[in-house]
UniProtKB/TrEMBL annotation:
Name the UniProt record assigns to this protein: AraC family transcriptional regulator
Stored SMART domains: HTH_ARAC
Keywords: DNA-binding, Transcription, Transcription regulation
Claim: Ribonucleoprotein is one of the keywords in the record: no
Gene3D superfamilies associated with the record: Homeodomain-like (1.10.10.60)
InterPro entries attached to this UniProt entry: AraC_lig, AraC_XylS_family_regulators, Homeodomain-like_sf, HTH_AraC, HTH_AraC-typ_CS
Superkingdom of the source species: Bacteria
Positions of the HTH araC/xylS-type domain: 210-307
Signal peptide: none
An annotated Gene Ontology molecular function: DNA-binding transcription factor activity
């Protein structure tokens, strides 16, 4: 049973496991002198880890460039273009210039090596892309000097070692380290996620809401009510409803329904019947389940089971896997 003393409460792991996030390291970018570039690969969730030097960056919609320094990590959700430059006054006029790879396979901009950055992309299958995109803000910036970023510093050091290594298994190690880098950056962000940030991921850092999210995730088929969930959070019904909506972006019972439908979608993908999928998330009525599924997923479950699953099996498409930009 779910309770506030359960040490297994970890809805963030539930989310990442469900989405099946896979991180791919694109390579190392070295820049020097005067340089600027727009990274136009939209619809691509990227992470940029600064290992040496500093530069200025901005995303579309930000009024002033911000400095990023060694040890910092950026994550962009692919909805707005990221621009990086050697100085703040170059950001506004940057274009999507070609990045040249040298004989060692490193990407280079400008002249010299004042600035070094590791870049990577997040790969998820197309069926789960909307869930991850909706939960992330347009940009996450974690400072390397923060206490929460200490594990990130170790990971960056290990990545630098493995990228120069010729030891067997290096590619698997690099992939695993990139995965940890993404997760640790998310964890560090949740410690001090700004209220102004869009995306409901920040709710996973709220200690009261973690208990509620864990209850929902661990027992999605239970007939949860607002009063009971408020008690789990140790709050009044009204205060809980307001706080949940502010952090997550939807009312608690709406989130419950959405999570159930994502789980049901996974069941349908694995071959379950509509009745089996409905029962797995607490619906005794197929018709009620079908109405809820279509409202959330914009497709009837029977139709989804018949068509979308076949398309996914034949295409085996990975979200973002075809992007060639750094």
């Amino acid at each position: 049973m779910c309770n506030s003393s359960n040490i297994q409460l970890d809805p963030l792991s539930d989310l990442l496991d469900f989405i099946q996030v896979r991180c791919k390291l694109s390579g190392q970018l070295t820049a020097g002198g005067t340089w600027a570039r727009r990274f136009n690969n939209l619809d691509t969730i990227k992470f940029c880890a600064i290992t040496e030097g500093s530069c200025w960056y901005s995303i579309d919609g930000k009024s002033e460039p911000i400095q990023v320094e060694a040890g910092d990590v950026l994550i962009t959700n692919g909805t707005q273009t990221l621009t990086m430059a050697s100085s703040a006054d170059l950001v506004s006029d940057a274009v999507n210039t070609t990045i040249v790879q040298d004989s060692d396979g490193q990407y280079r901009l400008g002249e010299g090596c004042d600035f070094i950055m590791l870049g990577g992309m997040v790969q998820i299958d197309v069926e789960r892309q909307a869930l991850l995109l909706n939960c992330l803000p347009p940009l996450i910036h974690v400072l390397g000097i923060s206490d929460e970023a200490k594990p990130i510093a170790w990971l960056l050091k290990q990545l630098a070692i493995e990228m120069k290594s010729l030891r067997p298994g290096r590619l698997s190690v690099i992939s695993g380290l990139a995965q940890l880098l993404f997760t640790q950056t998310i964890r560090a962000y949740l410690e001090h996620a700004p209220d102004r940030d869009k995306g409901w991921l920040k709710g996973f850092g709220d200690q009261k809401l973690i208990v509620v999210l864990s209850c929902i995730h661990s027992e999605p088929s239970k007939n949860w009510g607002l009063e009971e969930l408020a008690k789990k959070a140790g709050m009044s019904r009204t205060s809980f409803a307001v706080r949940f909506r502010k952090m997550i972006g939807v009312p608690p019972l709406t989130y419950l329904t959405q999570w159930r439908m994502y789980l049901a979608k996974r069941e349908l993908m694995s071959g379950a019947s509509v009745a089996e999928a409905a029962a797995s998330v607490g619906y005794s009525s197929d018709s009620a389940f079908s109405i809820a599924f279509k409202r959330v997923m914009s497709i009837a479950p029977a139709h989804y089971r018949k068509t979308v699953k076949d398309e996914m099996m034949t295409s085996q498409t990975l979200y973002n896997s075809t992007s060639t930009d750094f």
